[in-house]
Amino acid sequence: MKHSVSQAHKKRAIRVIFDDMPNFGAQDIIISDFIDWQPLYDLFILGDNIIVTIEIAGVDVKDFSIYVCRGYMIIDGLRKSLSEVSRNCCTFHNFEIPHGRFNRRIDFPVPIEPKQYKYDIDNGILTLKFPILKERIIPIEEE
User: Fold this and answer.
1) DSSP state of 88
2) In what order do the strands lie in the sheet with 3-4?
3) What residue spans of the chain are helical by DSSP H?
4) What domains, with CATH codes, occur in the chain?
5) CB under 8 Å to 44, separation ≥6 — which residues?
6) What is the reported pTM?
7) Which of 17, 41, 77, 142 could share a disulfide with 54, CB 3.0–4.6 Å?
8) Contact partners, residue 47, CB within 8 Å, separation at least 6
9) pLDDT digit string (tens) for 39-78?
10) How far apart are CA 32 and CA 123, in angstroms?
11) Residues 69-83: tens digit of each pLDDT
12) Separation of alpha carbons 17 and 25, rounded Å
């Protein structure tokens, strides 16, 4: 990973939020009416880390946020259409790349350490690396 929270270059810094998870739960049906697309992602475990790669080509880092907790993450944002393309300027022959609001919840198979993430963005792919939460065993002494 090229970047960590403390080393991230301001121009490419992503917005990761830990303590203010959006409450999409009960409102999923309402929110889904405003979601135009969902980014594709891969998730795998490599050693003691969970790696998530998300396809965000054409999305500026200022146009998305990532909400992270131990059990899941949500990426929420907007892919803007090209400024020179408007519905009144031309005749469309093919229009496959989704634009507009996106939102995707990604559940982790095991708990992670959210605040110790690292990330990289390369060729429209955001890669996030989270360490797996180590179980803490507290011994109970019997009297």
Assistant:
1) T
2) 3-4, 118-122, 125-131, 49-55, 41-46
3) 28-32
4) 3-131 (2.60.40.790)
5) 50, 51
6) 0.77
7) 41
8) none
9) 999 999 999 999 999 999 999 999 999 999 999 999 999 9
10) 28
11) 999 999 999 999 876
12) 17
